[in-house]
Amino acid sequence: SQQGEEDPQALSIQEGENATMNCSYKTSINNLQWYRQNSGRGLVHLILIRSNEREKHSGRLRVTLDTSKKSSSLLITASRAADTASYFCQGDMRFGAGTRLTVKP
Amino acid sequence: SQTIHQWPATLVQPVGSPLSLECTVEGTSNPNLYWYRQAAGRGLQLLFYSVGIGQISSEVPQNLSASRPQDRQFILSSKKLLLSDSGFYLCAWARGSGNTIYFGEGSWLTVV
Predict the structure, then answer these.
(1) Is there a contact between A98 and B49 if contact means CB atoms under 8 Å apart?
(2) Which residues of A64-83 are buried (b: 16+ CB within 10 A; e: fewer)?
(3) Which residue has the higher pLDDT, A84 or B63?
(4) pLDDT at A2
């Protein structure tokens, strides 16, 4: 079974706009993490948020976590064409289908 | 620093042929090791994971198998490939459950 389920499946925005992706998970977690995957490459870790944290920032990334709803969101502010990739959340060792983000120049 | 290598990067194999994908991790000891498969444009499917030498857990019953002959070596195998085995295979490691997972660059397998 999948641990993370990302929403939306695909998102297309203009450069400079913000992109928000959501993730729901099924079981209890200690940490929730977000990853990025460029086409045809391995996943790269972006940010980790612990179960006792509600919000975390890293550069243009902002992650929130609501353990009562078993959900998380990833916000990318001031998006750039280079942000075009797929984004995945991970609670244990399982991943969802990801959100494919396209940022148009 | 830790690194992960997997090979080969691309592979074209006929139906019914065997498969061996290898993965090694350097710079750490007793890592958790994982094999994932990703169909084109899809999410990651966990195939196998291992928490120690000789300890393999299978997530999905299929004609693939995994082995961990050494602490930092993880091998994905098949005796007879199916067309449906085509995909992008990713090896990964982590320092225990719930920690950040680090991925290799992947292996593209096309079964023809």
Answers:
(1) no
(2) bbeeeebbbbbebeebeeeb
(3) A84
(4) 44
Residue-by-residue DSSP string for B19-83? EEEEEEEES-SS-EEEEEEE-TT--EEEEEEEEETTEEEESS-SSEEEEEEETTEEEEEESS--G
Distance CA A33, CA B28 (A): 21
Given B32, B49, B106, which is nearest A42 (Cβ)? B106
Whether residue A97 and residue B42 make contact (CB cut-off 8 A), yes or no, is yes
Place of tokens 């098949």: B78
Q: Do the chains contact at B34 and A93, CB–CB below 8 Å?
A: yes
Query: What does the pLDDT look like over B88-100, one tens digit per residue?
Result: 999 999 998 888 9
CB contact under 8 A, B101 and A93: yes
Name every chain A residue with its beta carbon within 8 A of the beta carbon of B88. 40
- Of residues B43, B97, B104, nearest to A42 (C-beta): B104
Q: What are the beta bridge partners of residue B93?
A: B33, B102
The predicted-structure confidence for A22-58, as pLDDT tens digits, reads as follows 999 888 888 999 999 998 899 999 999 999 999 999 9
How many Å from the N-terminal Cα to the C-terminal Cα in chain A?
37
